[in-house]
């Protein structure tokens, strides 16, 4: 390990290529924490967006018009406005509405201060989940619709109840049908987490920005950042494609 | 889509006497499907309701402010010309990025179906690289790595930040257009290639006279979809300091001392502007998709 660090330090002294994230423990720790935050943010948003998608698709099939209209309006609104503006709206416009007072005692004095109830990380999770969820609603709905009617009729003929049909026939098939589209959206979500930079969530881009501001190594950090993101997404895409191939419905689609 | 349409045709005949027990339920479901079936049916009234909600919110905020403070509507109307000018700038950036991205992307997409393995491989690699990189990171990359001016034969060509942002946004557009072109060419049945070969067209003639004209129809809906995405991505330029709508909004809010009551109306106004611009595009794309849909 020391050898590698020494080599990169030597690289800096001889060529001027300054990769502090390799030989400097502090910068390395910051970079890795940023990477971890990006992954954590992506995973949390992924879970919430899938939940929102399932709920939305379920509401779209409701008998009453009001929940249907509501979900449609939600989907259209979040699909047709910039995710960054959504994030700003949540963080800067709605954030100040959720304040809490914190009392701190220092000696004899009691300080009462207003602090936000939700941190920027929470708001990033909320806005990104809603953004990706809007796309997921559409994806799940089209997946459910693509289940052949005859399959459902066959299940009905076998005497299955509505709930059983939904759980045991429609959902498993719909999931496998919409998996490619869902994966695309999730990959997109991972790329969209970079927007959290704008509201100071300490994810990879934000941390890299801090590193290049401190160490003045913009070109090196930029290149590293680009390749790390491409690598991250490439790994994800590769894994997803393998999964898709494993889950492909034989004889359905092309 | 086509499968769904076929299924719907099948369902038209559910009133056969044999199917009577289930027919009612199926007819009911079919009716509901027709209601929800295709993409969410949104009407312009929904946009109006949304605008109404924002106005209502602004009105409530207005009612809460004392008589001494300036009203919310006053502030919004005062800043609106500036904000709309910023929005126009966003649209300008989106047009230019789209033009550059499409020009380069089409070339790259044709490179991806080239018969020469090195051209095909390198086009594929470039496409995948720029498709998988986040837009914001690419924007940062171009902003920081490109010089702010070029010196060509002694003359200084300035390179303002908004042009750099345009190029930064054109990179992912390029990669996506490349994929759209490749996908469209692949979607043309191979019989077309074979029959044109039997009619003694060479490869170039086949591509430009037979395959690509058919592709244009298929490419337009995803291309417009990409344009809507790009328009929404132009806001990212505010992070790297271009004076577009979001930057101006934040400056306007700062000038108003970030008044608590102004935050929701101002950010809401930005959202509404983009919605008003992108939603018709989305609707039109959907219409074209349905119209050009090839029933296989």
Molecular structure report:
The complex is a heterodimer of chains A (254) and B (296). Chain A has one domain (33-218): MetI-like (MetI-like fold), CATH 1.10.3720.10. Chain A is 74% helix and 6% strand. Chain A has 10 helices and 2 strands. In chain A, strands 1-2 form a two-stranded antiparallel sheet. In chain A, a hairpin with a 2-residue loop joins strand 1 and strand 2 (109-116). In chain A, helix 3 (25-60) runs antiparallel to helix 4, helix 3 (25-60) packs antiparallel against helix 9 and helix 8 runs antiparallel to helix 10 (218-247). Chain A is flat. Chain A starts with a helix and ends in a 7-residue tail after the last helix. Chain B contains 11 helices and 2 strands. Mean pLDDT of chain B is 80; it is low at 6-20 and 35-41. A two-stranded antiparallel ribbon of chain B has the order 1-2. Chain B is mainly alpha-helical and 296 residues long. Chain B is flat, with a radius of gyration of 25 Å. Chain B folds into 2 domains: 1-37, no CATH class; 50-292, MetI-like (MetI-like fold, Orthogonal Bundle), CATH 1.10.3720.10. Chain B is 77% helix and 3% strand. In chain B, helix 7 (161-187) crosses helix 9 (203-233). The chains are: A mainly alpha (254), B mainly alpha (296). At the A-B interface, helix 4, helix 5, helix 6, helix 7 and helix 8 of A face helix 1, helix 2, helix 3, helix 5 and helix 6 of B.
Q: Give the strand content of chain B.
A: under 5%
State the CATH class of chain A: Mainly Alpha
Q: Give the strand order, joined by hyphens, for the main sheet of chain B.
A: 1-2
CATH class assignment of the largest domain in chain B: Mainly Alpha
Count all strands of chain A and give the number. Answer: 2
User: How many domains of chain B?
Assistant: 2
Q: What does the radius of gyration of chain B come to?
A: 25 Å
Largest sheet of chain A: 2 strands, antiparallel
Please state the average pLDDT score of chain B.
Answer: 80
